Amino acid sequence: MTTISVTSVSKSYGAFRALDDVSIEFRDGEFFGLLGPSGSGKTTLLRAIAGFVTPDRGRIAFDGEEVDRTPVHKRRIGMVFQSYALFPHLSVARNLAFGLEVRGDPKAETERRIEEYLALVRLAGLGGRKPRELSGGQQQRVALARALITGPRVLLLDEPLGALDRKLRQEMQVELRDIQRRTGITTIFVTHDQEEALTLSDRIAIINEGRIVQVGSPQEVYERPVSVFAAQFLGDANLFSGKATTGGLVLADGTMIRVSGQSAGLAVVRPEKVRIGRSAGAELNTLKGVVMQSVYSGASVIYRVAVPVLGETPFLAFVQNSSGELHAPGSEVTLAWDAAHTMAVAP
Amino acid sequence: MRFLGLTYLGAILAFLYLPIAIMMLMAFNQSPLYELPFTFDLVWFKALAGNERLLTAGWNSVWIALVSSAIATSIGTVAALGLARNEFTGKRFLQLMLFPPITIPWLIIGTAMLIFFFWTGVGRGLHAILLGHVALSLPYVIVVVGARLATHGPELEEAAASLGARPAQAFFRVTVPLLAPGIVAAGMFAFAVSFDQFIISYFLAAPGTSTLPVEIFTAIRKGFTPEINAISSIVIIISMSLVLVVSRFYRFGGER
Fold first, then answer.
1. Same domain, residue pair A40 and A171
2. A74 contact residues in B (CB cutoff 8 A)
């Protein structure tokens, strides 16, 4: 349906650079997650695409057609707001009707579509209720149906699940993804929840300080982070810093860490890639340390291990509880992981 | 506990309404001197019907209150929207400057208006009273409508725009219905400010024209007659039924 391209967009509020030369393309029909900490510019980018924010520089185009001078109401977008922004004085059905009425659709057609979209979000029969008479999850679905009913070119979601509790949130994630697949609409959603971004998205962009840090599929971005920020923002990561050498880096005490890719002195490994108490092999990196804390949760155990050469920060290891034995705090252990899982990163 | 609560409530209501109730009662008493026993009679209402001055003044009060509250509510609503939805230098100062007119004694504002109107050639008369009442009720309107506006952010208007509504459509389909309770409350406030106003009306009235409060004051100075009770009773009944009617449609202080 629609490809959206953002080219060299910048936006400042006073001295604060909310967006700093951002270029990114959202492909037709994909579910795209914009992920970043608060204040990173992800919401500003979404609002610029919607037309609520006018960039200082750069261009935004829908299917090659520039929309920079197109006001919000002519962009044919659908947006779900964090607070849902349902019209409190209108019933659910009238909320859905709003977008069709303002463009003057025939009445019979409008009523038919309302029924169709109420059914789509599994709210058939609730059209007569006022928004305040609905639960949070139901309000969320009304907001979604209202955004989709006009047949927009793109669906924009601003932290759509932020206000729901955990269980409802997981249900809605599945439903949201399902509805998006059925309608095939290009969808961009903003979130600060990494798990949500990984679960839902076809692709994600990590944004920090107004810049795009990395774009890729959830797996690419998680398994191959390009920078320390990307590695640490999306999941947990153990960081090594040392002197670059052929095939890896050398820590302060002379320990060699083999790295996949060309290291400039920084590398990371994900905690779940690390094993404890295995003897070293050729392909393995190893470090010795003392267990500081173990968090036992049945199927798995989280270890925090003190490794003197890495400084204050404890080394994290998420270990499957396959042996049934626990390394008690104070015990000396060997940490081991594949060189292939040790990724070179930029600062 | 329940008994105590009811007594307390009863005492407050008595405190508020006893003087008014006695006055209304005396409007129906035959004696001009509040003598008992109470003899029901409509003599004072009949006398009122023949009192041209009091009736003219009453009519003046009503139309001035209606027109000034309509003007103040329209201007004030637009001003409140402007203040709530825009950022500009001096906004804080402007908002702060809305409050002093509410607290400055009316006597002083009245004097200032009199001098200013005299000096600028506006002069005295019903037009001056109307102008004064609009100025007086504006801050109330801006504060009341502004408080209502603060209950929802710009998100609802943004949602309307995202659904394809032109700014005018968003305004009339979303902003106005949501503001309606605030606008009605502000209008009633403005009406009351004007209708109750004595001091400023007194200062700005030209000889021979006046509003009801001014006329009542003049009449009392000349010698009190229960006609005053009669017209006051009518005013009280009208204003109380107005409040009741409006409160049936809108719950004050929040979402319906």
1. yes
2. 164
Q: Is the pLDDT of residue A76 over 50?
A: yes
Q: In Å, how far are A44, A51, A79, A208, B140 from A34, measured between CA atoms?
A: 11, 17, 15, 10, 45
Q: Does B2 touch chain A (CB under 8 A)?
A: no
Separation between Cα atoms, residue B6 and residue A124, nearest integer Å? 47
Q: Nearest by CB to B162, which of A50, A83, A87?
A: A50
Question: Does residue A294 sit in the same domain as residue A153?
Answer: no
Superfamily for B45-249?
MetI-like (1.10.3720.10)
Is pLDDT above 60 for A291? yes
Q: Where do the DSSP E strands lie in chain B?
A: none
**Running along chain B, 256 residues long, what does each successive block of 10 average in pLDDT?**
88 90 81 73 77 84 92 92 84 84 86 89 85 90 88 88 93 89 87 86 83 84 78 83 72 45
Residue with tokens 């292939």: A340
Q: How buried is residue A166: exposed, middle or buried, by Cβ count under 10 Å (0-12/13-18/19+)? A: exposed
User: Range of A264's domain?
Assistant: 236-344
C-alpha A278: how far from chain center: 34
A224 and A264 both lie in a single domain: no
Q: In this structure, are residues A260 and A343 in contact, taking their beta carbons and an 8 Å threshold? A: yes
The reply to whether B171 touches chain A by the CB within 8 Å rule is no
A127, pLDDT greater than 80: yes
Claim to verify: residue A215 and residue A338 sit in the same structural domain? no
Interchain proximity B178–A103, CB inside 8 Å? no
Q: Please give the tally of structural domains in chain A.
A: 2
Q: Chain B: residue nearest A51 by CA?
A: B162
- The CATH number for A293's domain is 2.40.50.100
Does pTM surpass 0.90?
Answer: no
